[in-house]
Each structure stands twice: as structure tokens, then as C-alpha cells.
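Example 3.2
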Amino acid sequence: MFRTVMTVGLVCGAALLASACGDTKTERGLSGAGIGAAGGAVGGALLGVDPVTGAILGGAAGAATGVMTDKKQIDLGKPAWK
């Protein structure tokens, strides 16, 4: 059980950190929603909850985090493709 909780915690933490990727609030919100939905679906499946419910909750949390962050708050540096 502890391993499952740790895995879910790491996935959710990574999703929240990466949700600030993007130059505008819209980009950060969209990327946060996608990452949060993926993390929520995996977390829901690991915890025995419906993955769709996990994806909806994770997507909402990721989108909200992405929209509420500012580019200055999380700067991951220059993208690899530039």
C-alpha cells in the first residue's frame, strides 16, 4: 500500500510541477490539464478508483494549477528544441 501511495504522490507531484510549462496561461492550463488527466487516470487505476474519475479530477487540478501559475514561478529553462 505504501508503494502505491508513493507512486501516486510522485506522479501527481510531477504533473503539478510540469503543469506550468508554457508561455501563456492558456498553454499552461492546457498542458496542465493533459498531464493532470494522465496522472489522475494512472493514480485512480493504482488506487482501485475508476480511472475516468481520476482523470477528470487530475485534469481539473492540473488545469487550475497551470492557469494560476505565472511563467516566473516555474522556469524550466530553454526548451530542448530551441
